[in-house]
Amino acid sequence: MQTFTANEAKTHFGEFLDIVQREPVRVTRHDRVVGVMVSAEDYEAMRAFYADRLRKTMDETADAAENAGMTPEILEQLLADES
């Protein structure tokens, strides 16, 4: 993965965008990584991956709660309890 300083990314933005289409590019400021730029295609793929992972986790959690005896009525009572 290539690294650009924030200033280099600004002054060579066209080149920066071309590189990003091939691979992620790390951006630094004061010798600290402040971001990573990826192509729109890679970004959408990452969003889809994490959305699917979240859905799976939520489904697994709901199944575990149901198997442990959780019902919508019990959940409502727990959420309404302000103590």
Automatic annotation (TrEMBL):
Q: Which InterPro entries match?
A: Antitoxin_Phd/YefM (IPR006442), YefM-like_sf (IPR036165)
Protein purpose: Antitoxin component of a type II toxin-antitoxin (TA) system.
Pfam families linked to this entry: PhdYeFM_antitox
Source organism per entry reads Methylomonas koyamae
Q: Which family does it belong to?
A: Belongs to the phD/YefM antitoxin family.
Output the superkingdom of the source species: Bacteria
Q: Which SUPFAM superfamilies match?
A: YefM-like (SSF143120)
Q: What is this protein called?
A: Antitoxin
